[in-house]
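so i finally got all the pieces together for this one. its two components total, 1493 residues if u count the protein bits. some of the lines might not be protein, just check the labels. i wanna see the whole assembly predicted at once instead of chain by chain like last time, that was a mess tbh
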Amino acid sequence: MDLQKELFQFNAQQMTRRAFLGRNSAGVGALSLALLQAKLSASSPENNFARGVVNPLHFPKKAKRVIYLSMAGGPSHLETFDPKPKLAAMHDQAMPESMTKGKQIAQLQGKELKCFGPQHPFRAFGKNGTEICELFPHIGSVIDEICLIRSMHTDAINHDPAHMFMNTGSQIAGRPSMGSWITYGLGCESQDLPGFVVLTSLGKGGQNQPIAARQWASGYLPSKFQGVQLRAKGDPVLYLTTPNGVSATQQKDVVQSINAVNAAHDRLVDDPEISARIAQYEMAFQMQSSVPELMDLSQEPAHVMDLYGCKPGDGSFAANCLLARRLAERGVRFIQLYHKDWDHHGGVKNGIELKASEIDRACMALITDLKQRGMLEETLIVWAGEFGRTPMSQGGSGRDHHNHGFSIWMAGGGIKPGVVYGNTDELGYEAVENPVAVHDMHATMLYLLGVDHLKLTVKFQGRDFRLTDVHGKILKPILV
Amino acid sequence: MSKRPVFYPIVFGWVSMSLCLMAQVEDKHEILFNRDIRPILSDNCFQCHGFDPKNRKADRRLDTREGALKEKDGVTAVVPGDIKASEMHRRIHSSDPDEVMPPPKNGKHLTKEQRALVDEWIRQGARYEPHWSYTPPTRKAVPTNAHPVDYFIEGRLATVGLRLSIEADKRTLARRAYMDLTGIPPTPDAVKEFENNESPDSFNRLVDTLIASAHYGERMAIPWLDVVRFADTIGYHSDNPRNVWPYRDYVINAFNQNKRFDQFTIEQLAGDLLPNSRLEQKVASAFNRLLLTTEEGGAQAKDYEARMLTDRVRAVGTVWLAQTIGCAQCHDHKFDPISTRDFYALGSFFADISEGVIGKREEGILVPTASEEQKLAELNSQITRFKNELRSESEERKIQQVEWEAGLSNGHTDVSWGILIPQKLHADRGSKLSHLGDGIIDVPAASSAASDSYFVTFKTPPGTTMGFKLEALSSESLPNKGPGRSPKGAFIINEITVKDGDHSLKVSEASASYESKTNPAKQAIDEKNDERNGWSNVGLIGQDTSIYLEMASPIPEGKLVTIILRQASGDNQTLGRFRISATQAPAPIRAPRVQYPEEILKIVGIPSQKRSSADSAKLASHFRATAPQFAELRRSITDAELALSNFEKSVAHCIVSIHTDNKRTVRILPRGDWQNDSGELIEPALPHYLPRSNVPDRPLTRLDLANWIVGKENPLTARVFVNRLWKQFFASGLSKVLDDLGTQGEPPLYAELLDWLACEFVESGWDVKHMVRLIVTSRAYRQTSVASRELMASDPYNRELSRQGRWRLEAEFVRDTALNVSGLLNKSIGGPSSRPYQPEGYWENLNFPARTYPNDKDDRQFRRGLYTWWQRSYLHPSMLAFDAPTREECTADRIRSNIPQQALVLLNDPTYVEAARNLAAKIVRLSGSDTPSRLAWAFYQVLQRAPSETESNELAALYQKHLSEFVAAPEFAESLMQVGISERPGTGSTPELAAWTSVARVLLNLHETITRS
């Protein structure tokens, strides 16, 4: 029944003014009434959840869903996916000023800029001998499934605005996150889970950057498209647990009574919001059982737990990857994981080693697990930080924030496997070959999901807004 | 799924058809540019043929008549009266994809009906009109006996074949008025009284009573707090708190006192600039500080200077002008005549506000109550008294000074220091601190972190400790011999804190044997967060240097004290070796070079009769500042100052606007790029496209801006406010897009009504209560909100206003309703934010610092929703679920959603469970003894009506079932009764109370309970 509202909203967004200008009471009413009735009959539970505003799709879809692995803090591309022997050779020498002059810089403002060689060796993996840091042998083992992009760049250089830019395509708070856009466009296939789910995990290095809830907010889109956080501790979804002393059946009784009284009231006032409310109570009640069932990893066989290398309920990134697979199986459209603690202003050498131990195996496991289940080809995986790190040293052991060039990877869902796209210059400073902007990444993700980023727009403050602002190009060379 | 594609064509068909109808019906009538044509041109043409010259194609403007009629290369877009000669006609009808306008690749398309309208407009002479909201509102005459609101609405409804719906029943009217005017539902008695009052003016009287209630101000404050983005925290990154709640009280009081809206506006934008501004006006100017700020390390001042400027421009644009001026940051506006220059000129008004661009906000000004103000005066006069006493001169003191001078010239005895042996050493980020013996603490290079905080714990030595000395020690093992760990041997200690357990001990003075100009010792105790703010040895590398700390209060012996050295430079400017000592000597505790500076020793060397009077004064003052015989008096001063500062801490603070003549420079940033310094310098100026008069011929100030905003010529302000006010009483504004009255907004169906109200607002002396009363006393306001299916279908958004609106209550009122009907609501007005229960760990993703959320443990727990602690990055989840905005951006219009999280909140949030068990206790204590009468009583409490038979049966069955279950398992009933901090009820058996709690939960969850109808 929410559909009805949604349709009205959609309708309103598309053509406010003219509709009202053109109204005169007789003829229009009859048509609308027919429309309304058609809708009422169509909103049976089965298709209530799957609908989005993009229908039919603009393009044939390659991927049905996205698992987005946000590496919060800004992983160093120079100790992960971007080998730079020249930087090693220039270790401790002055960074060429021609490269850095007039560019944004964060904590190294006014400091001497010296090259800082990669802190870990790189090694060739896979059929094409793709070089990545040897701290990531598990990712190396599935490198032939991955498309590595070494030429990413972004507009923002501080964590908070950079996350906003990555997630919403804007540095201004209040814009919808990509997960919201995508569920708004495509709807959700799950009947008892939200379309957009967020999981966070802490790193053990103590540099856990704050992540604001706005990173998964729906902005000016309807609230039902906001990301719902699943938590490892406490209620997995806020307020999911029945009050103390109230049994599950009693809770069910209460919900049934609420719905019964609401239905009685609806018969008097005939307000479509009431039937929507009743549906939400049903959904909420279903979530009270579906979410705990989802979160319960004890049902997973031992070999799967071993593959990911986690224990049930340990709140680790690996456990979240496994939950991501379970969410994907249940039809959740956009699953976003945050793993924090990549902010290596100092001690990048040890820091990356620790991070590798936390994510390497899990990433491999996710790809392998999805592949084994035949889900990889319909699931788009994205691994990305909010920016990269400077080729210059910070304090002799670390690297500062860096937005001119860094690495991300994608896999599955229509992405060409086993390729490397783009490159930074020989010191890893600037994306020089096939630079990829954040809007390009968004445009490509939407394309794979069957959505034209130019057409998925919403009118807000008088303007047609979209995820890609006024930019974005589809990265055709990395598509199957 | 399969039916989906069918829908939208129907929708489109509907619109097309209606336009078609209109075209047929109205082609005999005059086409009106603003109503019929501008929306088409704005949506489809202005992007490339509009105000913005940079994006203009073919040098063709269509937003002005002049541009449309201009001949260029033999082509004229519009030839009035002649469609054949008009290029526009040819292009919009062309079937050639390279010719047709708008170009298909832009994703735009004109419908057949739109093309027909454009043609007809050209045929009729292609008249343009200025955009409706940029022309002054005019006031159409209203017959004397008519209610102005009804006059306009009934007038239009008659022409479209509709009329006002019947009046709502009195109970609904009472609930509606209470919710709209106070946000708290009526009691059953209040409703009964109103129902029984048959006087014709009973409703107007009720309105008067409610408008006079102090809760009116609270209710009115909420949309205002949304639109100005009032919140308790800074927003970005660490999202730390700031002191700003007195501003909320200002807003509540302003509405309650019915402050003129022009005055309200001026005080917020420029209260600090008013002559002899009162405290209240200064607090109002906190408006300018409500934006987002950051404490993130590595944030660049110029970046955030630009962000803050744009934030403020968006705010003024949204709050008073409903203009999307923010869109003109990087380029001229595509739809409205707003230039990039307008954008920066508006931002330039705020360049005089004194504030740190990056870092922690200041504490703000004191906002004392009357009694606090008196106490402050007493404490201040006490300090003055002691200081005068110290300053005073006497023969005895002269003699003492001579003796003191003699001591100095003989070489003073230094304060004695006892080395402290650490009991515990620890660092936040992995640096390994080790004790080398003799109090020397070493940090090996291998373990050191780029930034780290060291924790040194020791027992205070015998006697009372008055101060500490931290020696930074050089060593061969350190780069450049240190004592710092940076490659150059530098360190910077950003902050030194002394703690007794969790309790911070105040350091009153810091001085050092070496201090540079940029990083003096005092920066180590100034509680500033900037990573470059601290005591540093840059300029004295490779040598020992010490910092001396004087404690504000003596520390008794045997205390376990921790000294924390926060070093946050991020580039290894941390200490490599150091030692801490303590002294029992009386204050002042200073570095020797400060206590006995060269200058003083030099003066002492001059015979007294030969000293200049300035030197004599300097010496006399130094004598008083350091000689032991004044120790007690100095202590009295310190104590009195401490008492003052402690008391000040208990007084409310508020960050406000403070003018500085040292204004930030503002330039046009090309494409909004803050790194580009090439743009022109910009002075404050009013938007060029809006009318003004009497602009002073001098640099303009915020006060000038404020005066213009509420000036006679400004066509927007009154419309904007009245339009938002309308939403509060009718579900949406007369012009639907509350934050955009520009060309992309909605031309109001009831333009004459909006204009009339705007004129009335200004002419009434910007009287808000008058406008509220005017709207809610209309017959239109009293209509029922129940719509027939036909009406619902023909006018789904109720734009014609032939019925009242119905909507789910605002988040705050959902909470207030539950607390009120359960008797828990704390109705006190104003004060600091409160902290209702919040799920544990909800703030787990906050950091710098990590923090927990302490629920209020007293009756502040039950304060109204609008006082909820507003954490921007993690707004209270119950509020968020019901669409309260995070207030990171100005929000003129809240979303109203219907999502499962709302059900989860009402079912499981302890606030609602506790409210339910308190309502249950009231039912058992106060109502009849049989279930039906108890149910009826409960319905009256919550909904002010009797239950229907269906409802009664449903809930009676629920009660019976749960009663028997709770009787069988009383321990469950017991734990349900323990939810929340409120007291257990005295009356009723636990299973009975628990079963009624189930019933109460149902009542609090009902759609009707949380709906204004």
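The longest helix of chain B spans residues 4-26.
Residues 30 and 124 of chain B are 8 Å apart (CA to CA).
anyway lmk what u think
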